């Protein structure tokens, strides 16, 4: 089966497609892609759904390496709204 392993940073991303046996898990996909030891990863997901290293993967899945948020989304939204109200 084919699985895509994806890691994104601001302004760029790295994507690796790997071939795995049918009983593979997230950890196997990371190992095959050479992304098991990537720093700053706080969690994993399969198509946006949080997953563990033991989560089974299926043909066509996208395994995502998740980084910690750099800003609280509520605070960022509040700051944008304040800037817009001052500009208008």
Describe the structure.
The model has no long low-confidence stretch (mean pLDDT 89). This protein has one domain: Ubiquitin-like (UB roll), CATH 3.10.20.30. The protein has 88 residues and is an alpha+beta fold. It has 2 helices and 5 strands. A 5-stranded mixed β-sheet has the order 2-1-5-3-4, covered by helices on one side. It is elongated and about 55 Å long. 26% of the residues lie in helices and 32% in strands. InterPro entries: Mopterin_synth/thiamin_S_b, RnfH, RnfH_sf. Residues 64-88 are annotated as: Disordered. This is UPF0125 protein EPA99_05210. Belongs to the UPF0125 (RnfH) family. It comes from Pseudoxanthomonas composti.
Rg estimate, integer Å: 17 Å
Arithmetic mean of pLDDT: 89
CATH class: Alpha Beta
Q: Which oligomeric form is depicted?
A: single chain
SS elements, strand count: 5
In the CATH hierarchy, what is the superfamily? Beta-grasp domain
Report the sheet-strand fraction: 25-35%
Keywords:
Ubiquitin-like (UB roll), 88 residues, alpha+beta, 5 strands, 2 helices, single chain, 26% helix, five-stranded mixed sheet
